[in-house]
Amino acid sequence: MTTIERLTREHARVSRLSRVTLVLRVTGVAIAALTLGAVALGGARWLALPRALPFVAWFAVLAVGLAVWRHQRRRLVARRGQADVARDVERERGLRDGAARTLLEVAPLGGPFVARADALLGVRLGDGPLASKLRRATRTQVATSLAVLAVLAAAGALSTASHRDGWRALVHPASAWAGTLLPAITFDDPPAGLLRGDTAMLQVRAAGRTTLQVRQRFTGGGWRDTTLRLRAGVAALRVGPLDADLAVVASDGRATTDTLRVRLAERSFVGDVTVRARFPGYLGRAEELLSADAPLRVPQGT
Q1: pLDDT digits 0-9 by tens, 232-258
Q2: Closest listed residue to residue 146, CA positions, set 22, 10, 13
Q3: 217: phi then psi, degrees, rounded to nearest 5
Q4: Which among 30, 130, 141, 182 could disulfide-bond with 208, CB atoms 3.0 to 4.6 Å apart, if both were Cys?
């Protein structure tokens, strides 16, 4: 193998390792940026933040990745050209400045003089590696970048458990925008047979949310807003005392429920009812006013 071929092979090896380092570093930065984005969006914070933020996060990741790619490419690849590797060989092997580079420059000309210069330089270089220090430095870069990438990938994997909703918002930004990323918000069926003046408990289920905005409106009245906090995606809402049919709507800022209507059961009479009990004379009891809302138990003959 000629010295020119050895120099060309040395450059190819160093260039290949430099490109591997470049890919590892850009990948590590991208994973770190995505992890930070998932943490920032996690904990249901993506619901309170602007809708476009998952798209902005992806744009930021691409912008940072491109910037790192360009910067590291200049450092790792552009400075590892054939002439650069030849210069490193000269310095490491104590050759005259330009000895290897000049040979590469005149190599396309060919001829006996080029062959003679190739042979003389080959004798001085010997049979061992042309630039062992450069190889070690390049391999160290690859190993260091790979180790950092493994740490960042592990951190990202751990964050998928603690900030799962943030990762889902990043992976499905369109669904996060439309409010279809999480299960629908639902109300359990309201209790039946409610009368005027009663109080009821409504159960709302909203998996993946920590708070909800609930709006209530009695027939003929205005809307009243309430912030409801959930535990494990479930919360109870106390409504009443009821004096008219009630409309209830819940929203997480993206998705909104259908209107739940709590209807009152009308009594079979209009106005108040007074029940007066007149007991048999042998009991010696005076007349009493009894409640019309509870079951009545009176002695026979009353």
Answers
A1: 889 998 887 888 889 999 998 888 888
A2: 22
A3: -150, 120
A4: 182
